[in-house]
Design a protein that fits this description.
Length: 307
């Protein structure tokens, strides 16, 4: 796969240039986080996939002019890191890099590609749109400072059952909570539930004890999936959902109240999560529970089955 463009060569990155290409495309990521990113690739590499097949470079007269990375993830998804291109690169290099990276999806276990942009990455949105990405959501990243003490929540109707007691029910409930959701609704139906759950398990350090089926008055109505980050002494609310039939009873707020006390008892400093900025009821619920916004990103997605 070679593309000529004003004497610029676009090609998959050879092994001897992996380090330089990754350093370029992950330039804004701190070294510790880079290590975490590489660690996430181990399960795929152990299955024989070339995890750097989506690492593509632009060269001109043997100079590394730019790079882009389609980073595969468990759950048949991938993250497209925005192209990093030298200031003196000819126009159009970023788009050529994106096109070439997406072509590599055919050799990776990928059905959906996503990218998260900071405000500084906004010029890359035109490139994304030109290669078929669509805007998914503006994401609000929220944080709760967990109090050292928390009054126990007394709510007899609310019960948390370990998800390990019925994995099939967990998947059924999770799927049901996506119906009529206001949180990234365009994702519904793009992936099968097995891939979704596999992806959830890669977030933070998977602890089955922090995954629960939520019962309300004895009936299963939702799910609560948490992931710890021991090095930061925080938990991430990976996913919380309530089925449509049980909404409107403030169950979500009650779950958050119990979650805060659980985190307090565990000595956790913070709980973090991401929510769709257009999901106003959810944002109001989180605000009432004490969560505050600390940053935003813009999410774009593209289905790649059939490439």
């Amino acid at each position: 796969m070679l593309h000529g463009m004003s004497k610029v060569l676009i090609r998959p990155c050879p092994a001897d240039l992996h380090r330089d290409a990754l350093r370029m495309v992950l330039g804004s990521v701190d070294p510790e986080q880079r290590g975490s990113i590489i660690e996430l690739l181990r399960p795929l590499a152990s299955e024989g996939f070339d995890v750097f097949a989506g690492l593509v470079i632009a060269e001109q007269a043997s100079e590394l002019l730019g790079s882009i990375w389609l980073q595969p993830q468990v759950g048949r998804t991938a993250t497209l890191w925005p192209a990093a291109v030298a200031e003196h690169a000819p126009a159009g290099v970023s788009q050529r890099l994106a096109e070439a990276a997406l072509q590599q999806a055919a050799v990776l276990p990928v059905s959906l590609v996503q990218t998260l942009l900071h405000r500084s990455d906004e010029p890359f949105t035109k490139v994304l749109e030109s290669v078929g990405f669509s805007h998914l959501a503006d994401l609000c990243y929220l944080l709760l400072t967990v109090p050292p003490r928390c009054e126990p929540v007394v709510e007899p109707a609310l019960e948390f059952v370990p998800s390990s007691s019925d994995p099939a029910l967990l998947e059924q409930l999770t799927t049901a909570t996506y119906r009529e959701t206001l949180d990234c609704p365009d994702l519904e139906g793009r992936r099968n539930i097995a891939d979704v759950m596999d992806g959830y398990r890669t977030i933070g350090v998977h602890d089955p004890n922090l995954w629960s089926i939520v019962h309300w008055h004895g009936q299963p109505v939702g799910v609560l999936l948490m992931a710890p980050y021991p090095e930061a002494n925080q938990w991430e609310l990976v996913y919380m959902g309530v089925i449509p039939e049980a909404r409107g009873q403030a169950i979500g707020g009650k779950i958050l109240a119990e979650l805060k006390c659980r985190a307090s008892r565990a000595g956790v400093d913070h709980i973090v999560l991401a929510a769709d900025a257009a999901n106003h009821p959810a944002l109001a619920m989180y605000s009432q529970a004490g969560y505050t916004e600390w940053t935003r990103r813009v999410a774009y997605v593209k289905s790649v089955d059939g490439l």
